[in-house]
UniProtKB/TrEMBL annotation:
This is NAD(P)-dependent alcohol dehydrogenase. Keywords: Metal-binding, NAD, Oxidoreductase, Zinc. Its cofactor is Zn(2+). The lineage of its organism: Bacteria, Pseudomonadati, Myxococcota, Myxococcia, Myxococcales. The keyword NAD applies. Residues 15-365 form the Enoyl reductase (ER) domain.
Length: 373
């Protein structure tokens, strides 16, 4: 059985999203049919829109979905129709890295997340009789209905609006998880965040939750730095300031315990590394525009015990971490509403434009149209 639903199709690299009717399969074994109520737009979506995926188009992107389960496939016992869910990344839950507690690095992750297909190579959607890349992060949430896997769906019982829940699936999880899960930052430690977008600001909020003594934000926008201070930054610097690296080293008396690069640029990663103290850790979160992007680092800096780590999805397990963020929001300690801006689904191209021009920090599409996030 196939369902007629609406989806935002990308038909050419860097082209507009075109909303049209598509056919969606019924759920297979271990899958859920989800009515999407909201979907965040992430930098990763825009990077793949620009051709990073190198897969044939048309495609339906989107990987920060939230919605309501409509039906379940064979073998699904942990979800039922009517459940509110956040959709995150896919992991198999059985490989060595999954079983070691690091599902973000699942051995089957690339096939299940960024191929645009299910892990077995099939496609849930068809458009004008032809298959469409429509299992991006096993959801392709730029649509009114999607098929998700039970492993990348997270049940949420708390009364939180869909527009606030959706970005927890990737962007906010990535920033907050880097601090609370990958770094396990302790009270009194210092953090520097380069890039005050959705990921960086989520990291700053998490650092305040963890009790960091110093939280430094660096960005090109004075307005975003002002918001960073509101959310927990103790010090802010414009990225255009001369010798910003030296200034931070002086302010922190030799460097921070942890630094995060949230932009995806080699020169910014070098700055983040340079402000990390000996035995400190610099984390790379930003997705570069090209897969072969390289960075130069001083070997003596590495010999001094500094660590450079790449961090996917905050090294967090969505099944436990997303409910933790929901609880922090309920306590008033993770104010999601400060970062999200709602858009009607039909205004997806306006939302993309506002994100590209840095007018909006986290655009969120509301599938039922308008309203507040």
């Amino acid at each position: 059985m196939r369902h007629s639903v609406r989806a935002a199709l990308l038909q050419e690299v860097n082209g507009p999203f075109v909303i049209d009717e598509v056919e969606l399969e019924s759920p297979r074994s271990n899958e859920l049919l989800v009515r999407v109520t909201a979907s965040g737009i992430c930098h990763t979506d825009l990077t793949y829109r620009a051709g990073a995926g190198r897969f044939p188009l048309p495609a339906v992107l989107g990987h920060e979905g939230a919605g309501v389960v409509q039906s379940v496939g064979e073998g699904v016992t942990d979800f039922a129709p009517g459940d509110t869910v956040v959709l995150s990344y896919f992991s198999c839950r059985t490989c060595g890295t999954c079983e070691s507690g690091h599902p973000a690095y699942c051995q089957h992750g690339p096939a299940g997340n960024v191929s645009g297909a299910r892990p077995d190579g099939s496609f849930p959607m068809r458009w004008r009789g032809q298959p469409v890349r429509s299992s991006f992060f096993h959801q392709s949430s730029f649509a009114t209905h999607v098929l998700a896997h039970r492993h990348n769906a997270v049940k949420v019982d708390a009364p939180v609006s869909p527009g606030l829940l959706a970005p927890l699936g990737c962007g906010f999880q990535t920033g907050a998880g880097a601090v609370l899960e990958a770094f396990r930052l302790q009270a009194g430690q210092q953090l520097a965040v380069f890039g005050a977008g959705a990921v960086g600001l989520a990291a700053i909020m998490a650092a305040r939750v963890a009790g960091a003594s110093t939280v430094i934000a660096v960005d090109l926008s004075a307005e975003r730095l002002e918001l960073a201070r509101e959310l927990g930054a103790t010090d802010t610097f414009l990225a255009t300031e001369a010798d910003v690296t030296k200034t931070i080293l002086k302010r922190t008396r030799g460097g921070v315990d942890f630094a995060l690069e949230c932009v995806g640029l080699p020169q910014v990663l070098r700055q983040a590394f340079d402000v990390t103290r000996p035995l400190g850790t610099c984390g790379l979160l930003g997705l570069p525009g090209r897969a072969n992007t390289e960075v130069a680092l001083p070997m003596m800096g590495l010999l001094a015990g500094r660590r450079l780590v790449g961090i996917l999805e905050g090294d967090a397990d969505p099944k436990t971490f997303i409910p933790r963020l929901v609880s922090l929001h309920a306590e008033g300690r993770f104010p999601l509403e400060k970062l999200s801006r709602p858009y009607a689904f039909e205004a997806i191209n306006d939302a993309v434009h506002d994100m590209e021009t840095r007018t909006a920090i986290k655009p969120v599409l509301l599938m039922d149209g308008g309203g507040s996030a």
